[in-house]
Structures are given as C-alpha cells and as structure tokens.
Amino acid sequence: MFVPIELQIGEEAIAILPGIQKQFGIDHIKAVRGKVLDIKRIRGENSVTMTYRDYEAGKATVLTKTKTLKIFDYRIVKFTFGGVMQSNPQFDIPRIEKEEGIKLDPNFVNWV
Predict the structure, then answer these.
(1) pLDDT value at position 112?
(2) CB 31: neighbour CB atoms within 10 A?
(3) DSSP labels for 36-57?
C-alpha cells in the first residue's frame, strides 16, 4: 500500500517549469532539480519555492546562475524524503497538458 509522504522544506525536488521553451525550433517542457526553500498554501493548493541551477542550453557543464522558482506542487514530479526519491502523488499530467496546450509523453515521468 502506497502511503503519500508530503514534501518538506530542505528536500530536493524535480519540477516541470511552466511555459514552453523553444530549442532548435522544437517545443520543449523543461524539468529542473532543486532544493525546496518554502511551502505556502495558496487557493487551496501548495505553492513551493525552490532554488535550482540553470545551465546554458546544450552545455551541461557551464553553470550560468542559481535561480529561485515559485511553482505549484502539482508540477513536482518527484522529491526526496530522507534522501530517498519518491514519486509525488499530487503530480498532475492532464492538468499540465491542459495549461500548456501540449501532450506529454507518458514516459516523461521516468525520464526525470
């Protein structure tokens, strides 16, 4: 039986950024891994503030800067709990697809 574990401050999370990014003329959804700094309740949903490192496109070794992101928890794909990566039961692919007007590959969750 799966017991949902809530996201905690200080843990790492993998999140899907809002908006479509163009890369080589192709639409992409970007996922980032970062550290959770804050969790707030807004309109009945959890808003998560996290920091992540942003890399130059195509150059994974060139760090440009650390960014802070505010995102709703239904965009968190996975997160750590005590150092162990867990799937987020709040992750909502249909909602993201509707918001972005795109269709995600069902294997996307396993890629990140």
Answers:
(1) 58
(2) 17
(3) EEEEEEETTEEEEEEEEEEEET
pLDDT tens for residues 47-84?
889 988 776 555 555 556 788 989 999 999 999 988 88
pLDDT at 76: 92
- Cα-based distances in Å from 28 to 8, 22, 25, 44, 50: 28, 6, 9, 29, 21
Full DSSP string of 52-111:
EEEEETTEEEEEEEEEEEEEEGGGEEEEEETTEEEE-TT--HHHHHHHHTS---TTHHHH
Return the exposure string of 55-89: e unless at least 16 CB atoms fall within 10 Å of the residue's CB, then b: eeeeeeeeeeeeeebebbbbbbbbbbeeeeebebe
Nearest Cα neighbor of 109 from 77, 81, 86 is: 77
Element (H, E) at 16: strand 12-16
